[in-house]
């Protein structure tokens, strides 16, 4: 079981990833995958940087964690700065992640209900840093945000 200090440390690692993505000109969403008290995969949204349609923060963390035994993912916790979208939630379910810690869901409500329905423990922190990062980004770059979440930019 992870204590509050470790949870804060791992969420901070995800926030650091989100900030790195923003510095690279991308969308500030970061994620880390933790197994047995250590980060085995980290990533940030790199859709813009890589011209990718799938490299959300969680997907990048999975990619960087690499091929793992199913037991590793089943015992892992995924930390993400923003509520996971349908694609990322699908990967969470596919790889058997049982616990997800979400930085915030005020700026975007992902598929938390689906995850919970499928037995995933979802904890939402409403972390001020995560809220601030996304609120500022959405205000400053609404067209890119709408592209990332699949909404038309003229809505």
Rg calc: 14 Å
Averaged pLDDT:
94
In CATH terms, what is the fold-level topology? Cytidine Deaminase, domain 2
Under CATH, the homologous superfamily reads Cytidine Deaminase, domain 2
CATH architecture: 3-Layer(aba) Sandwich
Helix and strand pattern: HEEHHHEHEHEHH
Report the total helices: 8
Describe the structure.
With 155 residues, this protein is of the alpha/beta class. 47% of the residues lie in helices and 16% in strands. The chain contains eight helices and five strands. It has a five-stranded mixed sheet. The longest helix is centred in the N-terminal third of the chain and has 20 residues, at 4-23. The radius of gyration is 14 Å and the shape is globular. Its cofactor is Zn(2+). Keywords: Cytoplasm, Hydrolase, Metal-binding, Zinc. GO terms for molecular function: diaminohydroxyphosphoribosylaminopyrimidine deaminase activity; metal ion binding. It is found in: Cytoplasm.
Which characteristics define this entry?
single chain, 155 residues, alpha/beta, Cytidine Deaminase, domain 2, 8 helices, globular, metal-binding, hydrolase, diaminohydroxyphosphoribosylaminopyrimidine deaminase activity, zinc
TL;DR?
This protein has helices at residues 4-23, 47-50, 57-65, 70-74, 86-94, 112-117, 128-140, 142-148; strands at residues 30-35, 38-44, 77-80, 99-102, 121-124.
């Amino acid at each position: 079981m992870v204590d509050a200090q470790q949870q804060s440390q791992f969420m901070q690692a995800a926030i650091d990833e989100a900030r790195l993505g923003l510095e690279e000109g991308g969308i500030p969403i970061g994620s880390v995958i933790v197994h047995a008290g250590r980060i085995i995969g980290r990533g940030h949204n790199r859709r813009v940087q890589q011209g990718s349609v799938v490299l959300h923060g969680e997907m990048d963390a999975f990619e960087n964690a690499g091929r793992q035994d199913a037991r590793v993912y089943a015992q892992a916790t995924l930390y993400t700065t923003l509520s996971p979208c349908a694609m990322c939630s699908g990967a969470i379910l596919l790889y058997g992640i049982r616990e997800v810690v979400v930085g915030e869901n005020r700026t975007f409500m992902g598929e938390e209900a689906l995850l919970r329905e499928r037995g995933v423990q979802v904890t939402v922190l409403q972390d001020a840093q995560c809220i601030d990062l996304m609120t500022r980004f959405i205000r400053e770059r609404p067209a890119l945000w709408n592209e990332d979440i699949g909404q038309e930019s003229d809505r």
